[in-house]
Amino acid sequence: MTETLKLTLYIANKNYSSWSFRPWIAMKTKNIAFTEHFLQFDEATGHAHFIEFSPTKKVPALKIEQEGKEPVTICESLAILEVVAELFPEAGLWPEDLIDRAKARAYAAEMHGGFFGLRGSCPMNMRREIKPLDLDPYSAAAVVKNVERIEQIWRESLDASGGPFLFGSFGAVDAMFAPVINRFEKYALTDSEVFHAYRFAMKTLPAWKEWEEAALKEPWVVEEDEA
């Protein structure tokens, strides 16, 4: 079935687009072929041009074209990871063990729908100088709480699996946490052993290096994400 598939992944600025990064690094790392379609963010218009490919006017969006069927567009990073995992089960995006798979999905969903303190105060920024933010006490407490919970997930998962990724080999849940590595590093949020180990595993991926190299070359600045 996959031989008749054509996948197009619509993404935005690699320096900032954490949600684009998630399915992109998963598909690249698992050698799943896709065409990358890049467009710049346009905050002034609310990214109005994204409506050309995304009904939500958000990135990422995955267009699936299959012979004999109408093209389908899937939005939302986690949904994209799920459909890619179904289309390419041999890629092993989720753990084989039922309980591990349930845990991985739960952690991925927690990342998708939570950690608002971290996401709001510390946007992904590949070009950012490493330095802490001067946050108000309420925002700082929210970030600390998020960091503690994320590190708990990482520590328990890596201790159980032996690493180097959360459930042994790289998977969808690692893709969901990939932008968090950038946030923890660039805003100097932690110096823990688990962070250093997981960061090393993530940042030595060829896909990470490819994305980061492209991000650092981008000339565009999105002021809303320059915390």
Q: What is the number of domains?
A: 2
The major pleated sheet works out as: 4 strands, mixed
Total DSSP E strands: 4
Q: Determine the number of helices (DSSP H or I, runs of at least 4 residues).
A: 8
The coarse overall form would be globular
Global structural class: alpha+beta
Can you lay out the helices and strands and say which pair or pack?
Layout: E1 5-11, H1 18-29, E2 35-38, E3 61-66, E4 72-75, H2 77-87, H3 98-113, H4 116-121, H5 137-161, H6 172-186, H7 193-203, H8 206-217
Parallel strand pairs: 1-2
Antiparallel strand pairs: 1-3, 3-4
Helix pairs in contact: 1-2, 1-6, 1-8, 3-6, 6-7
Description:
The protein is built from 8 helices and 4 strands. The protein folds into 2 domains: 2-92, Glutaredoxin; 98-211, Up-down Bundle (Glutathione S-transferase Yfyf (Class Pi), Chain A, domain 2), CATH 1.20.1050.10. A 4-stranded mixed beta sheet has the order 2-1-3-4. The chain has helices at 18-29, 77-87, 98-113, 116-121, 137-161, 172-186, 193-203, 206-217, and strands spanning 5-11, 35-38, 61-66, 72-75. It is an alpha+beta fold and 227 residues long. Helix content is 48%, strand content 9%.
Q: Could you write a compact summary of the structure shown?
A:
The chain is built from eight helices and four strands; from the N terminus they run E-H-E-E-E-H-H-H-H-H-H-H. The chain is of the alpha+beta class.
